[in-house]
Amino acid sequence: xxxxxxxxxxxxxxxxxxxxxxxxxxxxxxxxxxxxxxxxxxxxxxxxxxxxxxxxxxxxxxxxxxxxxxxxxxxxxxxxxxxxxxxxxxxxxxxxxxxxxxxxxxxxxxxxxxxxxxxxxxxxxxxxxxxxxxxxxxxxxxxxxx
Length: 146
Ligand SMILES: [Zn+2]
Prior knowledge:
- The chain is mainly β.
- The protein has one domain (2-144).
- Helices cover 5% and strands 38% of the residues.
- A 5-stranded antiparallel β-sheet has the order 8-7-6-9-10, covered by helices on one side. Strands 4-3-5 form a 3-stranded antiparallel β-sheet. Strands 1-2 form a two-stranded antiparallel sheet.
- Strand 3 and strand 4 (40-41) form a beta hairpin.
- The longest helix has 8 residues, at 18-25.
- The radius of gyration is 16 Å and the shape is globular.
- The structure holds zinc ion.
């Protein structure tokens, strides 16, 4: 991680993660899947964590899933996030079984200024994938599906 303009912590793609970030820029969520045992892998890695087979296959997924957990970010925050609070960060279990973190957003990918109460955020609610442009980095995020 490094700090980019305007101060958001911005991920720096490396050889293991570049396909993921390139996919996000195209509006595609790519998750690795082992070609030998079929296990879905998160976070990106050069070998399967289950059977140690190298070169898992980057596979596009729908991003559909359910809220496994969530939290509300409130002040104090890093200065870059100060204008966004309060906002919700979701831990989403994709239908493939892997878990990713992302903002709660509206249908257009804008981060919602909310504590989640009005939207009825709760564990188990279905979510749909969206993407959010944060200072030029395209992040997967989710909107409530129902
Ligand atoms: Zn495997």
